[in-house]
Design a protein that fits this description.
The protein has 13 helices and 19 strands.
Length: about 575
Amino acid sequence: MNNYPVHSLRKNLFVRLLVMYHIVILPIILLGLYLYNWSYNNASEEISKHKSVQLHTYLEQLDREIEWMEGQKYDLLHEDALRQIALIWDEMSGEEKSRHIHYITNRLTSITNNSSYIKDMYIHIPSISRSISALNGIDDFHHENHRINKRNTENATGRYSPHPNDTTLNLNSIITNKDLDGQEMYSLQINLDKEALVSSLDSINLYEENETVLFSGDREVLWASSDSSEEMIQKYAASMEVADRLESKSIEMEGVTYHFDGVYSKDRDLFLVSYLPETMVKKPLELFRNWVWVFGLCTIIAITIYSYFTYKHVHQPLLHLVGGFKQVENGDLDHTLVHNKTDEFGFIYNRFNEMLIKLKTLIDRDYKQKLMVQEAELKQLQSQINPHFLYNSFFIIQSLAKTEDTERIEAFTNMLGEYYKFITRNENNLISLNEELKHARMYTEIQSMRFSRRIQVQFDELPASLESIMVPKLIVQPIIENAYKYVLEKMTHNGFLRVSFHHKGQTVLMIVEDNGDILTDERIKTLNDQINYSNKQQEITGLMNIHRRITLTYAEGSGLILSKSELNGLKVTIKLKLKEEDKIV
């Protein structure tokens, strides 16, 4: 397992965890954050919409209430009984005075009782120095209240004015009644109950720490819910801009962010504003956010545990198996895999070990046997060649000695020495094609010294691009020797031998053919079958030996091909299909 060190396995596990975190956990967390932000924004919008509806509803109800008060006030100021009290009080009888006072008092009481916002109503009549109240009936003239009411009526810029006692709020009106001399006959004063108004704002605060404030058109606070912050109200009032375009906004104070919503009544020139801390908006979502983080953390733990067990029980055994195959690729058939568990990998490991045993057996039984047979056949071929050729060589030397042709004896013995030096050299089974053909050409030159008069040899030049190709030793010369031994030596004249070369792509053809006519087509076919479909029981001939060595060395389709030559003799084609690594230069 040297190709797979521990730190690489840990790195692979770490990379897998990172990828899984990015693919699974990060989208979950991002989705949770997105849902949280979406929920928060949606909740803020829904709260703002709900509050706006509430504020509009409250302001509309207040408008209707004030409109009803002013209608009642208008009707009351035009009552005949009130005019008579103001104008002819002294001329009225006691019974008429009592009846008119009782009527006006009942009207005031009825109006006061029909509105939860009215604390008391006064009619100040200067001509009789009396003030009539809904709560107290007829009383001495209230100079202070009359003065305040007159000042508010004449100078107030808004509909409401605060009362000095700070518990009521005056509802201002421009409606007054004057006599022919322009003197005020009486005035009507409505005191709004500030506590009731505050309570009405408290009733629309549906959230904890939610407060509501009512502003006048000049940004003065009219009334506010009971727990509202004056500092917060003033800060918001300072930030108010266009009256009829109030928008939701956030204001921070003392590290706390507050969310504001407001509405504006143009008819009454009133602002109604509600605010609450943003934490109240987020509070319902806190549980959701916490669960998102808990879910993300649980997912991280689950994926980590899953990744560890996957690495331990799948990834690591698989890497051991890959390492075993790497060892086999490198030729190490003794590297067995050990797995003590009876799981799927235990089954695979056992089959892998059995495969190694069978593979080693097959190699020992087949491949090594073929190499031994190849080597034995080569040695047998050499032993078959040597005696026959040696006998003939001695006869040639004897003939040359009788004629005392010392020059040819010297040349012949040199060639003979080179010939036997080549075939007895065993250090390399593969040689260059140039060396192989040089030996074959030398053999034909030796034979030419015997048969130069009746046998002609045509030996084509080997293309330079084929000279360095590595071929098995003794694949050309034995074929030439067979031609001499079985055909050419028996011809009395005009014997002819031709050796030629062709190549196309990765295929090389070497052709040895003669002009003998002793072999029929049937015999040539039989020889072809013997070469291609030989078995171990057959006698190994020279041609079979060459064919087997070529098929073991080169790609499928290589070997010897026997056919009828155009010269009318036997044509032996040596076909070499080179492998990718054996490029032709």
